[in-house]
Amino acid sequence: MAVSTKRRLLPVILIANDLRSGDVVFYGDDGWTCDLGRARVAQDHGAADDLEATGARSMARQNVVDAYLIEIEPTTDGPRPRHFRERFKTTGPTIYPHLGRRFGAAQAAAAGE
Amino acid sequence: MKLLDRDGVRADTFSRATPGDRDLHDRPIVPLESLETQLSSREKRHVGVEVSNVASVEQLAPHFDDLALIAIVFPAYSDGRGFTLARRLRNAGFRGVLRAVGPLIADQFAHALACGFDEIEAPDAIAERQPYEQWRRAGASISLPYQQGYSRANSIFEQRRLARRGECNA
Amino acid sequence: MYKYDRFDAHFVRERVAQFRDQVERRLEGSLTEDEFKPLRLQNGLYLQLHAYMLRIAVPYGVLSAVQLRQLALIADRYDRGYGHFTTRQNLQFNWPKLVDVPEILDLLADVDMHCIQTSGNCIRNVTADQFAGVAGDEIEDPRPVAELIRQWSSHHPEFSFLPRKFKVAVSGAAHDRALLKAHDLAIRIVRNEAGEAGYEVLVGGGLGRTPMIGKVVRDFLPKGELLPYLEAVMRVYNAEGRRDNKYKARIKILVHEIGVEAFQARVEAELRAIEPISPVDETAELARIAEAFDTIDYARLAPRSERFEAARARDARFAAWAQTSIFTHRVDGYAAVTVSLKPVGGVPGDMTSEQMRLFADLAERFSLGEIRVTHAQNLVLPHVRLDDLHALWLELADAELATDNVGLITDIIACPGLDYCALATARSIPIAQAISMRFGDAVRQAEIGPLQIKISGCINACGHHHVGHIGILGLEKRGQESYQITLGGDATENAAIGELLGPGVTAQEVPDAIERIVDHYLARRLADEPFIDAVRRLGVDEFRAAFLGTQDEAA
Lengths: 113, 170, 555
Ligand code: HEM
Ligand code: SF4
Prior knowledge:
The complex is a heterotrimer.
Chain A: E1 12-18, E2 24-28, E3 31-33, H1 45-60, E4 64-75, E5 78-81, H2 84-91, H3 101-110
Antiparallel strand pairs in A: 1-2, 1-4, 2-3, 4-5
Chain B: E1 2-5, E2 8-10, E3 15-16, E4 28-31, H1 35-40, E5 47-51, H2 57-60, E6 67-73, H3 81-91, E7 97-101, H4 109-114, E8 119-122, H5 124-129, H6 132-139, H7 156-164
Parallel strand pairs in B: 3-4, 4-5, 5-6, 6-7, 7-8
Antiparallel strand pairs in B: 1-2, 1-8
Chain C: H1 6-27, H2 33-41, E1 45-47, E2 52-56, E3 62-64, H3 65-78, E4 82-85, E5 91-93, H4 101-110, E6 127-128, H5 143-153, E7 168-171, E8 185-191, E9 197-203, E10 215-222, H6 226-240, H7 251-258, H8 260-273, H9 282-293, H10 306-314, H11 316-325, E11 326-328, E12 334-339, E13 350-352, H12 353-366, E14 370-373, E15 379-385, H13 389-398, E16 413-414, H14 429-438, H15 442-448, E17 453-456, E18 470-477, E19 480-487, E20 499-500, E21 505-506, H16 510-524, H17 531-538, H18 540-548
Parallel strand pairs in C: 6-7, 7-8, 16-17, 17-18
Antiparallel strand pairs in C: 1-2, 2-5, 3-14, 4-5, 4-13, 8-9, 9-10, 11-12, 12-15, 14-15, 18-19, 19-20, 19-21
Helix pairs in contact in C: 1-2, 1-4, 3-12, 5-9, 6-8, 7-8, 10-11, 14-16, 16-18
The structure holds protoporphyrin IX containing FE and iron/sulfur cluster.
The site of protoporphyrin IX containing FE has 24 residues of chain C, from loops.
């Protein structure tokens, strides 16, 4: 799903799955995060290339798998993926809203994290 | 490249000879195209041949008795044609050394040995990332496979057959 | 049921240890993701959109109550409290963590289960008629052959890195309930003129991007010669199947490109090159395996149950359920009961851990502890006494498992689609839900009669849309989900690929489009004429007009 440099529409963020858990993660200023709102937004191609390189490095270091850039539009609630596929990927199955990201958050809360 | 077999990492006693090559190789591995000329000018049983995984048994069978080694190239670990070619060569009676050349991974060691390979010539990068200990462990991970008739004599089907005949119940 | 002997049990444990080692080597970097991927796939572990997905083999769809309870435990402990039954008779968990998978595999091994070869470019888990051993139209129980193939193909040294996946199905019945002709290889147990049982072998079926119907390559293979024959087929495919293009790598393309006769000739030549005699004493192995399936202690019962007849006369809802859910058992006084996993508006094939436990209890009380999974994503209780049917129905109703729609328009097959699947181009489950809501009324469904809708979220066709009476394929068109509708597919022994009706429609338009097709059928059918027969008689063009809304009666 990677977007070629010429075609990509800015801004973009870096998305991946955590190698160990499979959870959807985003690259933010403090490293990988499950919180879409904290994803680092690349506004120009230079920053996007940097993000892409970060993704490749992270994959090589066994932190994440399937890292790629996705196009987003900034909203007041944070980044919103332009493509419906990536929107579903960031929210969870549309058929089970309770099993999406909130489930992971609830689990984490229950575990006292 | 590193050469691995059942006993560990080994020195390669063969070397690659290219068609125009003037060096004298003691035990050359030659491409299929120059096999005939090499065989005519050398002692038998000192020559190896390297073939792609689409080579046919018919091309090689006439030389079985003269050949010391057949090396089959795996272009990628996911390309399993080499396993079938090895098996066909063994079925057709080749008794020399069978070598798998290419980026196989440790987890395919058992497959390769069972299909009749004796040794793997793996790229350095893989051999370094996957030290021999991993090959040994992966190769032994299934101690008793189901398939009968592959290079290991023992199998689950065979054990059951023996048990039925009351011969052995190990 | 087949019980592992010590060899099977030992093999599965070793396979778990092997995978545990592979996971560790992946985490510490000895294996790259590219190297690990085929290894995890051969153990049923995918990476989907939101998480990993683990596909658990339910060999030929046979499951015990004890096993289902263990699946419930895994769902609660390592997943999110539910599982999804698939068209290949397996169960998928959608949220396991990679690091937990070895433990899950150990829990599976505790109950003789595994995830071996439920994915990857290898010989996949073997599927079979869900009524195997139960059906009256059966020449022989196909399960022993299926189990023999399962064992023979497990961790095969030569056939684990094939050009592409290789799916096998087996049936011993006159009617095809296993979708034989859509498999890479299918085995039908048949009798020759001398009355001996043997195997008819079909090769080259498959759905996906280029749907094809399997062709007979051997009309009678004597018993005892199966494994060498399979070895020859696999060897020809492994050597010659295309590897230059993954969409052309299935055996169906090889058979199509070189022709059936050439393919047969190569297989026969390969057979001559190997020992013609099976290295395995197949007869003895089949007999050993068959013993495990023959142990069922049926009671001697009358063919007719007064209790059942009275309940049916008394209770119309029960009668309606019985009408769709009961399959005649070969043993007097018993029935096989199909339990719909398609509640109106629900997610096809999903089951919660709570339902699993309850269902396991019911299987023990009413069906000798045995369960079957169907390719239509439903479950079967294969050995229920007619006398017990009403009591069973009441219990199922309490668990919301008594939907009386088996084989009807809301008994929809749907793949996970874009709600889970990384390859999807559109969602499929919400489409199934919307259609199910539209046609959910029990009287209306019964009025429409047998009709199969099958939905896939991309061209890979996991939802079998090609062979649905009505098939729906989700695609992307101009940044939106768009659905193509096909008509006239058939998943039985009359296997046929559906024809496209017209341009794609939006998700919102799908239920209306289906309704126009159904209304046209209702207006034009002869008395008691099922949907698919009417489509065949009237032709697809007439329905196309209805679908496009260019006909008055559809307005
Ligand atoms: C969720 C992750 C899944 C992925 C990534 C996936 C992937 C694929 C792919 C790539 C194909 C096409 C193969 C080819 O044409 O060579 C395929 C076919 C198929 N899959 Fe899946 N699948 C998934 C889930 C499922 C599920 C849930 C089912 C059962 C409901 C299923 C059953 C099938 C069947 C029956 C086919 C068609 C068989 C054929 O191509 O002949 N798959 N799948
Ligand atoms: S048909 Fe496509 S969307 Fe559906 S499960 Fe298969 S690969 Fe995924």
